[in-house]
């Protein structure tokens, strides 16, 4: 496995009783590519991280309600699964929780604990409905979050590219602290990069041109009607008439968003980047470029991605791959063993082995 580069990155995740995941104890590396059939449960691991993110923002009950209640979160509902248990390990630091359903369709903490590199556990109690993580470590400096390593991950999701997609709408020009998970502030963020990180901005534009040769540049400016507002515009190569975002194909717009995610300055990148089916709608040449950006980003960041693309899988090494299978209603997540595949890989690519069902991750009856 590719080594982690920061104590802020996850080296192990344990999830028991979440949606299709009955039991999971998965070691994580710097680059983690999940493959599996439709409905195998790839997206459920990413959904788990989304739940943890909402929990840390004290939005757990809102998340549970939007999912449809505890029975939609617990593995086959509360009659089958009494508690959702999980552990997140970050080097010598970690966080553990257990959630159980209540009669009023909320989820209550049966346990919440965190520990630091000293190995001392700090229980946060039980019976509460939102996290009780303190705002500073015991004995630590004032201010800041406890275990700041819990928050530096972000889940990006660029599937919505319809006419009403947020990325195509005008938004505040000062909304540029970071690229939002659905890229709704893409124009404002690019405007910041153009003015303060020109080298990075130019690298983004050049990479987009490799996948979309017609693309000239972004046309970034405050709205003439309201200088507090900005909208995503662009120009074709050797042309100066700007187009709106809805003139971009869905695949091109997604590739632009992904390029900004992986080529943005490191000071804006989260420690762990999670994306679900990043290859959606991309040409094979664009898929190869995307994979190259992800491999480069994994030198300093942790990447977790779910895919169904043979072309995308072929861009990675066996040690990067996690196979997700579903049998009897349960999702299992297993890392590939490169040594066990060494002879196969002399004659076949990873994608070919996946198609031949040597790796697993195929539909099963």
* Largest sheet data: 6 strands, antiparallel
Derived from helix and strand composition plus strand pairing, the structural class reads alpha+beta
Could you tell me the strand content as a percent range?
15-25%
Inertia-based shape: globular
Figure out the total of helices: 10
Low-confidence stretches: 137-146
Tell me the Rg in angstroms: 22 Å
Mean pLDDT: 92
Q: What share of the residues lie within helices?
A: 25-40%
What order do the helices and strands follow?
Answer: EEEHHHEEEEEEHHEEEEHEHEHEEHH
How many beta-strand segments?
17
User: Could you tell me how far the N terminus lies from the C terminus, measured between alpha carbons in angstroms?
Assistant: 31 Å
Strand order of the largest sheet: 2-1-4-5-6-7
Explain what the structure shows.
- It contains ten helices and 17 strands.
- The longest helix has 15 residues, at 42-56.
- The strands form four sheets. It has a six-stranded antiparallel β-sheet with strand order 2-1-4-5-6-7. The chain has a six-stranded mixed β-sheet with strand order 8-14-15-3-16-17, with helices on both faces.
- The chain has a domain at 1-152 and 317-365.
- The chain is of the alpha+beta class and 365 residues long.
């Amino acid at each position: 496995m590719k080594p982690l580069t920061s104590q802020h990155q996850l080296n192990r995740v344990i999830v028991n009783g979440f949606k299709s995941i009955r039991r999971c104890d998965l070691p994580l590396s710097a680059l983690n590519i999940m493959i599996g059939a439709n409905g195998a449960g790839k997206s459920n691991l990413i959904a788990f991280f989304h739940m943890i993110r909402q929990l840390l923002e004290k939005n757990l009950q809102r998340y549970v309600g939007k999912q449809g209640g505890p029975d939609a979160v617990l593995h086959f509902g509360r009659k089958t699964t009494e508690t959702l248990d999980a552990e997140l390990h970050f080097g010598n630091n970690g966080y553990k929780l257990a959630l159980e359903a209540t009669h009023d369709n909320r989820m209550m903490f049966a346990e919440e604990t965190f520990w630091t590199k000293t190995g001392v556990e700090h229980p946060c109690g039980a019976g509460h409905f939102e996290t009780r993580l303190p705002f500073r470590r015991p004995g630590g400096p004032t201010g800041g979050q406890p275990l700041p390593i819990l928050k530096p991950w972000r889940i990006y999701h660029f599937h919505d590219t319809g006419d009403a997609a947020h990325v195509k709408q005008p938004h505040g020009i000062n909304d540029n602290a970071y690229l939002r998970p659905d890229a709704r502030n893409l124009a404002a963020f690019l405007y910041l990069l153009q003015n303060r990180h020109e080298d990075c901005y130019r690298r983004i534009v050049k990479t987009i041109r490799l996948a979309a040769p017609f693309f000239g540049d972004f046309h970034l400016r405050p709205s003439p009607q309201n200088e507090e507002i900005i909208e995503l515009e662009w120009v074709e190569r050797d042309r100066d008439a700007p187009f709106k975002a809805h003139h971009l194909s869905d695949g091109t717009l997604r590739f632009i968003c992904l390029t900004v995610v992986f080529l943005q300055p490191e000071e804006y990148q989260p420690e762990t980047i999670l994306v679900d089916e990043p290859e959606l709608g991309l040409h094979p040449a664009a898929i190869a470029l995307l994979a190259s950006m992800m491999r480069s980003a994994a030198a300093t960041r942790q990447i977790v991605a779910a895919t169904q693309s043979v072309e995308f899988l072929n861009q990675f090494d066996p040690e990067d791959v996690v196979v997700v299978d579903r049998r009897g209603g349960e999702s299992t997540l297993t890392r590939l063993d490169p040594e066990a595949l060494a002879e196969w890989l002399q004659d076949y690519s990873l994608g070919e082995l996946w198609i031949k069902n040597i790796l697993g991750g195929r539909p099963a009856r």
